[in-house]
Design goal:
With 278 residues, the chain is α/β, with parallel strands linked by helices. Helices cover 45% and strands 14% of the residues. It has a single domain (3-267), classed as Alpha-Beta Barrel (TIM Barrel). Strands 1, 2, 3, 4, 5, 6, 7 and 8 form an 8-stranded parallel β-sheet that branches. Strand 2, helix 2 (44-56) and strand 3 (61-66) form a beta-alpha-beta unit. The relative contact order is 0.19.
Length: 278
C-alpha cells in the first residue's frame, strides 16, 4: 500500500490576498487542492477573483468550503448556530445548496466538500452535506479527525476522554457518509497544527504519515490589507504556512518518505454534475 497526500487549502475566496497565497502554494509548493467559499466570509470581489484564478489554474483541484457559522450573515459560534437551527432561522440544506449552486453556476466542477469551522461534525449539518454530495455527485467529504488518536500523554485523563469521544464520533460520521455513498480519505491531519506550524513541523508530519490516503488541511495566504481588515484569527500565520508549503525541505521530505502528492480529482473517476430535477 502506498502513502498518498492531498494538501487542501481552506478559505479560497475569503479575501484576495488569501487567494493569491493559495495559488502560490499550488504553483510553487505542494498544495494540490482548495475549497472555495461561496458566501459568508467571501466578498463578491474575493469570490469573483477566486473563480478567475481557478479557471486560470486548471491543475488546482476545486471543492466547496460550506459556511454556516463565523461569517457575516451567519451565527458567530456553533452554539448560536444550534439555537438558530432549532428556532427555524436557518434551513441548513437550503443554505448549503445555494452555496454549491453558486460555485457550479460559475462554471467550476467541485470534487470535494468541507465546512467552515467543521460544522458538519453536527449530525444535521453532516446529513445535509452528505445529501448534497450524493445529489450533486461531488464524491469526497472531509472526515475531520486528526491522526493518531492516542490515549494518555500530555493531558492525561482529559486527552483519553477526548480521544474516546472522537473515536465514537468518527464511527457515526463514517456511517452517515456510507449511507449517502460519499467517499473520504483514510486519514486527516492539520486540525491541531492550524495557525502554528512551520516547515520543520510539516516535515515531521510527512515522516509520520500512515499508509493510505491522507488529507492535510492548511490555511496559506498573503497577509495584505484585505486580510488584516477581515474578522479571522488566522492572519500572519497564513504567511508562515505558505512558507512551509513552498519550502525545499518539505518537498525533499515527501521524496524521502515516498509520499505521492495527489488531488481528489486524481483519486476518483467519479464526475461532478448538476443533479437531475425530478
Amino acid at each position: 500500500m502506498t502513502k498518498q497526500l492531498v494538501v487542501n487549502a481552506d478559505d479560497f475566496g475569503f479575501t484576495r490576498d488569501i487567494n493569491a497565497g493559495i495559488i502560490e502554494a499550488h504553483r510553487d509548493g505542494i498544495l494540490t487542492a482548495t475549497t472555495l467559499m461561496a458566501t459568508g466570509g467571501a466578498t463578491s470581489a474575493a469570490f469573483d477573483d477566486a473563480v478567475r484564478l481557478a479557471r486560470e489554474t486548471p491543475s488546482l483541484d476545486i471543492g466547496c468550503h460550506l459556511v454556516l457559522v463565523g461569517a457575516p450573515g451567519f451565527p458567530p459560534t456553533i452554539p448560536r448556530l444550534v439555537r438558530d437551527v432549532a428556532l427555524g432561522r436557518i434551513h441548513i440544506y437550503g443554505e448549503l445548496v445555494k452555496q454549491v449552486r453558486r460555485i457550479v453556476d460559475a462554471g467550476l466542477s467541485p470534487t470535494h466538500l468541507d465546512t467552515h469551522k467543521h460544522t458538519h461534525l453536527l449530525p444535521p449539518v453532516l446529513e445535509a452535506v452528505a445529501r448534497i454530495s450524493e445529489e450533486f455527485r461531488i464524491p469526497w467529504v472531509r472526515r475531520p479527525f486528526d491522526f493518531p488518536l492516542q490515549p494518555g500523554g500530555v493531558g492525561g485523563a482529559k486527552r483519553a476522554w477526548t480521544n474516546k469521544l472522537m473515536r465514537l464520533m468518527n464511527g457515526r460520521f463514517s456511517a452517515a457518509l456510507t449511507r449517502h455513498r460519499c467517499r473520504s480519505t483514510d486519514w486527516f491531519a492539520g486540525f491541531r497544527l492550524t495557525g502554528r506550524y512551520r516547515s520543520d513541523d510539516l516535515v515531521e508530519l510527512i515522516r509520520a504519515l500512515p499508509e493510505g490516503v491522507t488529507e492535510f488541511m492548511c490555511h496559506p495566504g498573503r497577509c495584505g490589507d484585505d486580510l488584516r481588515a477581515a474578522r479571522t484569527r488566522l492572519k500572519e500565520s497564513r504567511e508562515e504556512e505558505l512558507r512551509a508549503l513552498i519550502s525545499p525541505e518539505v518537498r525533499a521530505a515527501l521524496a524521502d518518505a515516498s509520499v505521492k502528492l495527489v488531488s481528489f480529482r486524481e483519486l476518483t473517476s467519479f464526475e461532478s454534475g448538476i443533479p437531475r430535477k425530478t
